[in-house]
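Re: that chain you flagged

S.,

Sorry for the slow reply, it's been a week of failed gels. I finally had a moment to sit down with the sequence you sent. For the record, here it is as I used it:
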Amino acid sequence: MSTKPHVSVLPVQGSRILCVADARGNLSMLNDLAKEHNATCVIHIGTFGFLDNETVESAPAGLLRHLAFFSPKLDPTSLPSEEDADIRKFLKSKSTDPSTCLLSELPEFISGAKRLTVPVYTIWGSSEDVRVMEKFASSELHVPNLHIVGLASDTPCPLITCPGGLKIRLLGLGGAFIVPKLLDHGASMTSSIGGMVGATWSTLLGVGELLCNVRDTYSVDEIRVFLCHNSPLKEELLCHLAHTLRADYVVCGGLHFFYGLSFNHFAVTPSFETYVSALGQRSAAFAAVWQRLRHSNDLTSLTPQKLELLDLAANIFLTVPRLKDEEVNGNGMVKLNHAENEALRNTTAVLFQRLWYFNLPDMTHGNLVLSWKNGRLGAEMSSEGFDLSNRKRGAVSAPKGSWKERERDPSLKGTPTGPAEAGSGSSRDHIVEGPGVWVPVGGSEELIRGFFPPEHRANITQVVIKMKSMKGSKPFSMIFFNTEEQADAALAAIDAAAGSASRIKKERKGRPRPGRGGRG
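Prediction finished late last night. Pasting the structure tokens below so you have them in one place:
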């Protein structure tokens, strides 16, 4: 069963706002933590647990196993192995009460059997059921005290007013931010919520709605907090969006580290020009998708109002500062003259240093405390950290090979999740050098290969599956390809059931570095 989560608390002039990441359906814990920390409301990011019993019936097997593994109601060790009978049959055999769901407590809060004791403000994460989300969007479903930030039918940009006059405006973008999927609505009928049963992602229309709502609510006496599922460290377009929203802070998740992160880009980026260059590359990647799909039948059938929102969002991602004297060569990006580019560069340079990011660790590993005092917002970050108890006991033998040998041979090194030695559920532990894709799913090699279309599957050179690295960690897989281009193309075409996949880059000396993308 899931352990008690660590939390993030924001005390403000006598009010305390509890911030948590990845409840994954464990909604009763929100009440417990709110009471424990005397919180007046809760802010949640990541996967909330918008699931029900129909999710069990219709989710793809691989995705269903992923949801069951992280369910607060199930012991992961009790789940059948990949080779056993299907997970759907197992879950049905364990379900004794049709009014409850083994994947999430949400149905009990919908029925009124349980209730939220304080207001909860949440975005949706990457492992929700889009069908359930749409019922909330249409007001068919409702939970008292639950506010879905960014949902048009709810309070899209709620304002929290605290004693002393402090006002906090919440701006939210739900779902996994994946550029190739921004114009893919999946099985969604609302267009602004992209996804399928068990997997949800951000859409360009959702970005447009956010920009429109923010434009109508801006006030200089507010503290603006942007909530998003992915970390802007992995996606510069989210940084650019936060700049456009005039956010003061960004609270995000998705990296699933054992420690929280507090940073701005000035601290973690070699130079402003490096950031501008990376942002330009991401803008060009979006431009390629936009140019290819903007005239598709799915988009031309939208209402004029929705098309206007699409253009609004696209223009933001296509209008980015350029390197000095850099030319835009007709690739769909907005061309700026020298004066316009200098003005945008100057504005971006200020936000490059001022905008502050807090990336929350998994709720079982760490917490963040922001304190409002004398007009300042202070921060304390703590973490459960890596489990290094084996070093004290001497129970684990020393890694084979000398330090220099391990530096030369990546196969002698553990995974990058932490300093403890990693275990594996795969017999293929020798990691080759090469570009690849990281997915937050374990299981059989056949399952992992099945996430890719046949044309990309043929380019796979190796699949490395890690089922467990240390207490509290989760399984993942690394899929390697011959070239960077093959890996990029495979990532763009990967099935949504794989969760928030990310690219694996190569460090200096050719050593592979798996990216810790969003697990969802």
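What I noticed first: The longest strand covers residues 366-373.

Talk soon,
D.
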